[in-house]
Specification:
By secondary structure, this protein is of the alpha+beta class. Helix content is 35%, strand content 28%.
Length: 318
């Protein structure tokens, strides 16, 4: 049994040991170059497809949102506690205007674009101009709530709007971690057929030779992620190919998915945060109030009696 196949079987990805199970969305981690490099790769095909279906995104918006979700899941892999969350936000001057993604430590992500239907242009045949849809002027913000007194927040300016370069810049500038991020979303016949990414990070104690080796691998014509996936490469095999290190050691991995935990109770909590004057206005209107989740589009209806109860609770609590 190869080391690549072994990591999937040990992590429970292969219930039957059959390679077909590699096609499920999942993230895999490894260390290489004597432990001086952390390598992470991910498949997000079904995750991005679900995002497209939920939000009705155009091709350009699908590619941008898919890259954004994938990159967010990659940088969220360091979270450990069950209650940890990470929110990534892009605000930009392009037609999409921005995107928001929330990840937890269990591989769940939910996301939405500010504008879902934007014009799709191409850099070359088959390669969508994501930067034109996102815009080059704006910011990428990462907020992590990992149980400390205050959430950690870091923000950088966008440098390209192509997403991967922006995450790379964020990691180098805000977290002082030399990194390489590669992302890709392949769309055919208005369906996401391949989506995934890779993140290579230098670990404490790395040498100049280690960094030079990784940079040469990245700049030496390494194939695009979606091309490798189309050729049948799993995330673990992509890491194996990129690192070219016989001593690579695969660590634990986990499934990833688009999952929204919204509920009527959560929506009720959101309504309860409104000001007393706004709730009073709703009470006086005596109509059903429909709320919609930005992340998944689920709708929840509150009756006049339910709104009245929220208003009374607001008054009692001051």
């Amino acid at each position: 049994m190869s080391a690549v196949t072994g990591i999937y079987m040990e992590a429970g990805y292969f219930a039957s040991g059959m390679p077909e199970d590699e096609k499920l969305d999942h993230l895999v981690r490894a260390v290489a170059l004597r432990g001086n490099v952390k390598a992470v790769a991910i498949r997000t095909t079904a995750t991005c497809q679900k995002a497209m279906e939920l939000h009705g995104t155009s091709r350009a918006a699908t590619a941008a949102l898919g890259r954004f979700i994938t990159g967010s899941l990659l940088i969220a892999e360091s979270m450990k506690n069950d209650t940890d969350t990470q929110t990534t936000i892009i605000k930009s001057d392009g037609p999409m205007k921005g995107m928001t993604c929330v990840c937890d430590s269990k591989g769940n992500a939910r996301a939405y674009p500010t504008e879902a239907s934007v014009e799709t242009t191409y850099i070359k045949p088959g390669k969508i101009n994501v930067g034109a849809a996102v815009g080059k002027n704006g910011s990428l913000t990462v907020i992590r709530d990992v149980g400390l007194k205050e959430p950690y927040s870091g923000s950088v300016e966008l440098i390209s709007g192509e997403i991967a370069e922006d995450f790379t810049y964020y990691l180098a500038s805000s977290e002082q971690t030399p990194s390489i991020v590669a992302l890709g979303v392949q769309i055919k016949d208005d369906k996401v057929v391949n989506a995934g990414g890779m993140m290579i990070q230098m670990m404490p104690g790395y040498t100049d030779e280690d960094l030079d080796y990784v940079e040469k691998r990245a700049n030496g014509g390494f194939p695009e992620i979606t091309y490798l996936m189309e050729e049948g490469f799993s995330p673990a095999k992509i890491l194996d190919l990129f690192m070219g290190d016989p001593g690579i050691e695969y660590l634990n991995g986990y499934p990833v998915q688009f999952s929204c935990p919204c509920s009527k109770e959560r929506m009720s909590s959101g309504l309860a945060t409104l000001g007393r004057s706004e709730l009073y206005r709703m009470v006086k209107e005596n109509k059903d109030i429909e709320t919609v989740c930005h992340f998944c589009g689920s709708k929840y209806v509150f009756t006049p009696s339910e709104i009245d109860k929220l208003f009374i609770q607001k008054m009692e609590n001051g």
